[in-house]
Amino acid sequence: VHPxxxxxxxxxxxxxxxxxxxxxxxxxxxxxxxRIGMKQIGVCLSSxxxxxxxxxxxxxxxxxxxxxxxDTCFTRNFCTKCKSGFYLYSGKCLEKCPDGLxxxxxxxxxxxxxxxxxxxxxxxSPCMKKGKTCGFKRGNEVRxxxxxxxPSARGNPCPATSESRKCIVQRKRxxxxxxxxxxREEKRKKSNKDDSKETRQESKGRAARRQNREQRENNxxxxxxxxxxxxxxxxxxxxxxxx
Length: 243
Fold this sequence. Notes:
By secondary structure, this protein is of the alpha+beta class. It is built from 2 helices and 17 strands. β10 (87-89) and β11 (92-94) form a beta hairpin.
């Protein structure tokens, strides 16, 4: 240590030197040595950098290095993240996962093997043949199930999710599509015919009422107006005067 020790340090240092940097830190800060080329200098940090873990003592808080295969650690013997090529398991970094576990290349951890899980089978479908349920004696019926848990890389693969088997039904005739279509067409025509009949009746009623109204108007126009009865007193007055 360089003998020139200063008390007026920067960056959280309690004591420092021009050659070695921080020699001690202020309370609650961690002291760590950083290498710059061939030289190491002391720095004071609020938390330890990657590859180090912190230890607190009454006189000083220090950052110590993790194991070589550990990227970050809680203590020297408990790693929280491994370096490339290693898999984390129970605080240790392993090149190969133990039996019963598999390597997860996404999280770089050893995880439990997950097997495929499926739901219960659905009921059998109606007996069908070429998409129809009539017009045949022998057909097929199917049932299905869903995947509720996909397997991991080393897990058991999923089984078939559908099954089919032969079935026998009592033969029955299929309703001809043309006949059904014909019935629907007849019903539609009948409905349109009824609607047209009602419309014609309403039109006839309106025409009859309009004709009656026009007839009354014509009668009023052709009928002569009644003349008023003459006023006898007015007719006789000139005669009396002349006499």
